[in-house]
Amino acid sequence: MNRHVINPADKAKLTAELRAMGRKAREAARVLGRMPAGQKAQALRSAARAVRVAEAAILEANALDCAEAAAEGQNAAFLDRLLLNAQRIEAIAASIEDIAALPDPVGAVTEEWMRPNGLRIARVRTPLGVIGVIFESRPNVTADAGALCLKAGNAVILRTGSGALRSAIAIHAAMVAGLKAEGVPEAAIQLVQVGDREAVGQMLTGLDGAIDVIVPRGGKSLVARVQAEARVPVFAHLDGNNHVYVHAAADLAMAKDVLLNSKLRRTGVCGSAETLLVDGACAATHLAPLVKALLDAGCAVRGDDAVQAVDPRVTPASEADWGTEFLDAIIAAKVVDGLEDAVRHIEQHGSHHTDAIITADAAAAAQFLAEVDSAIVLHNASTQFADGGEFGFGAEIGIATGRMHARGPVGVEQLTSFKYRVVGEGTVRP
Amino acid sequence: MNRHVINPADKAKLTAELRAMGRKAREAARVLGRMPAGQKAQALRSAARAVRVAEAAILEANALDCAEAAAEGQNAAFLDRLLLNAQRIEAIAASIEDIAALPDPVGAVTEEWMRPNGLRIARVRTPLGVIGVIFESRPNVTADAGALCLKAGNAVILRTGSGALRSAIAIHAAMVAGLKAEGVPEAAIQLVQVGDREAVGQMLTGLDGAIDVIVPRGGKSLVARVQAEARVPVFAHLDGNNHVYVHAAADLAMAKDVLLNSKLRRTGVCGSAETLLVDGACAATHLAPLVKALLDAGCAVRGDDAVQAVDPRVTPASEADWGTEFLDAIIAAKVVDGLEDAVRHIEQHGSHHTDAIITADAAAAAQFLAEVDSAIVLHNASTQFADGGEFGFGAEIGIATGRMHARGPVGVEQLTSFKYRVVGEGTVRP
User: Fold this and answer.
1) Inter-chain contact B391–A233, Cβ cutoff 8 Å?
2) Which of A18, A310, B368, B399 has its CA 20 to 30 A from that of B31?
């Protein structure tokens, strides 16, 4: 079956269906925006229970997805992300309960002040409205993204990778049943029930004004499509081409610990380090031990001339390597000429995601943290902390690398907007 | 001269020029993002002095703009907004100095917390990058918008209405000379030096990635064009179709004061009230006095049947009147059936700008403030407080009515983004 071609009649039908989903989402958003915090939390707990109850149906659907993916020759990583079992379904339910337990962001006052004329002004969190989430073939994201958006008072339209569609439909059906039992509108969390990519294009147009923001999660092809086609705001999650810069004043043991953790704790996450920059001023003492530690830990090192000189196992780095998110046990490595050169390299090749400096020099750290234009900048800490949970945000829907609205881990607070509440005593403006 | 048609050769030349402006803006933004607060403030004071020094040249340019506008038959309001004199130039310079004196937002820590593993995480304000401001024929906006963007560490590309282009060029030249004297890059504030509208369309595409956000200021035709064509994020400033809702528990004297101020203090500002909603439960006592007060103050009232019944001077409201931003001494008025009906009317006809409730009932006020989805919601206060200065933000570049990033008065803080700064002690993730 080719899921990516659609005939005109089917396209018209899909358009009508998606627009109807958009209208229903807008109506649901109005209800959710006013829903008491307790009701939302209770409904999410009910959804978690419903997911547990539906375990057999979810596993059955997932088995079909997995069989199809295997038949299509998908790789092991794809199959592992797709596979559900009892333990993973329990993890999905527990994650919904964790989101239910987060503080409700809607109505929270983030700033409050009094004006000389007696007006009290408060900045209050409100929902964003309707969120479109377009994500890869990972069944758990159906639950996480749906629950996070709902917790923030938003309606959501989910579109999963077609490889996980049956699993997503089963999880979604369970969640909606659980939510409905607590009075949440059925359209609070909607799932696009067809696999073809035409739906992505239509969501990116905003469904006639029904979608306020798109959250894309996926590989380079989705990101490129979103950048070309999106007509609504996007919380883009780009590459994590992250750097560890070992400054002249770095403690070698600390640099080694942080570097190995940044690169190798998990290589497939967006917070993993992809490039090592070692300052020329400490290269004589630090470069060889750091490179050997990486190689000995099983990491391939692609280096410039100076890095190649310290170990024969180092292979030459190509120009493209500086811009590559390997997501594997591979690192590009280079000697830089001081802090400004490091910042310049990151500016030229980085993706504004997560970058770290290792140094004992507070002034150098402050300069790096100020000048590197990334969502997350770290001093003496692993890039693998780029994670909403590690930030204390609870679950996250991704790491935003743009500069508008949300940046860094997108948790429940980043899925809100705000309004100004002004209270007077019959106050008029002179 | 028809400024709105452009031949292909000129279009290609304009495209090349605008893209070059975009690249220069991006370079300037890098420098501005790292510029010390003191240098930015000093440079803005220098720009203010330069505007004062250039008074004669600015007045000369403005005289040409005014003569052309008069010859074109522009109306009195247009001519008044366009006209400069010594006093208005002094006000422009003083406004730049006020912006210079604001607290510098870049680097400000808006939240800071410690994680159990010892990581210290701070959310720190950063510049947005490059801002495109498209505005009407008001010379003072050249200075205000330029200074506000620069204060927040952003480069800006300004595009003024063609009617004010000569005045804007003169003000801009003076500002840039003043800024340059303090080491600010020439491209920190750039002005599109041609009047044709093709430049607007190109700015809305983002100039090949050079513009991060567009701030449009202008009438319905600009807003419509921005909505149709923008490929970059927009801080939209839509209509201010604002409501005053007189609740059943409103004090009549207070309601009268706030209503008259909301409607008539200045009718041409975006915060002026355009619709009066009176609760049916107090209509018997409140409706007639409120309507008569408006009429006696010289305000035309267009009402539903109930409103027409209280005074023969009331004319019938058309359906379109509920959605109209009159910006004049005209108000639409209607009796509503309780708070929920008022909220529903505002949701249906409002523009998410500024809406007020007058009531002595705290619970009713809380419900209105929570449920009305507008950038600014007021209790017992005039809608004319919808203004960055009245909020204590200093100057503003407009009132944003969207829900993404900026909402309400867009002052210097709203022109920033943020990053997370994470400090450890060699901290690694388990």
Assistant:
1) no
2) B399
pLDDT > 90? residue A7: no
How far is Cα A231 from Cα A242, in angstroms, rounded to an integer? 29
Question: Residue B257 has which token pair?
Answer: 């004061």
Give me the residue from A261, A370, A424 closest to B380, CB to CB: A424
Q: Do B381 and A251 touch (CB under 8 A)?
A: no
Mutate to test the interface with B, among A403, A405, A421 (most CBs of B within 10 A): A403
- Domains and their CATH numbers in chain B: 8-235+410-420 (3.40.605.10), 242-391 (3.40.309.10)
Backbone φ and ψ for B365, nearest 5 degrees, come out as -60, -45
Distance CA B244, CA B4 (A): 40
Q: Do A373 and B33 touch (CB under 8 A)?
A: yes
CB-nearest to B258 from A34, A380, A428 is: A428
Cα separation, B385 vs A120, whole angstroms: 12
Q: Do the Cβ atoms of A407 and B419 come within 8 Å? A: yes
Beta strands in B5-91 (DSSP E): none
B427: β partners: A381
Q: Using CB atoms within 10 A of its CB, is residue B173 exposed (0-12), middle (13-18) or buried (19+)? A: middle
Shortest distance, CA B347 to any CA of chain A (angstroms): 10
**Closest CA–CA distance from residue A364 to any residue of chain B (Å):** 13
Type of residue found at A182: E
Nearest to A429 among B347, B375, B385 (CB): B385
Q: Do B373 and A427 touch (CB under 8 A)?
A: no
> ipTM score here?
0.93
The pairing of beta strand B408-409 with beta strand B399-400: antiparallel
| Size of the A and B interface in Cβ pairs below 8 Å | 183
What pLDDT is attached to residue A2?
41
Contact at CB, B373 and A403, closer than 8 angstroms: no
What gap in Å lies between CA B392 and CA A190, rounded to an integer?
42
* CA dist list (Å): A234 to A228, A342, A412, B44, B352: 12, 30, 16, 34, 21
Closest by Cβ to A420, choosing from B358, B376, B405 = B376
In the 8-state DSSP scheme, what is residue A332? E
Contact A128 B404 (CB under 8 A): yes
Q: Which of A107, A258, A428 sits opposite B426 (nearest CB)?
A: A258
Three-point CA angle A238, A239, A245, nearest 5°: 125
DSSP per-residue codes, B246-276: E-TT--HHHHHHHHHHHHHS-TTSTTSEEEE
Q: What is the DSSP string of A221-287?
A: HHHHHHHHH--S-B-------EEEEE-TT--HHHHHHHHHHHHHS-TTSTTSEEEEEEEHHHHHHHH
Which one of B254, B422, B423 makes the best mutation probe of the A interface by having the most chain A beta carbons within 10 Å? B422
Distance CA B377, CA B29 (A): 35
Report how far residue B264's alpha carbon sits from residue A267's, in angstroms, rounded to the nearest whole number.
64
Work out the pLDDT band at A344, boundaries 50, 70, 90. Answer: very high
Along chain B (430 residues), what's the average pLDDT of each consecutive run of 10 residues? Answer: 65 92 96 96 98 98 97 91 96 96 96 97 97 92 96 97 95 98 97 88 91 87 83 84 98 98 94 97 98 98 98 97 94 98 96 97 97 97 96 90 92 96 97
Dihedral over alpha carbons B232, B234, B239, B243 (to 10 degrees): 130
Cα four-point dihedral sign A182, A184, A185, A186: negative
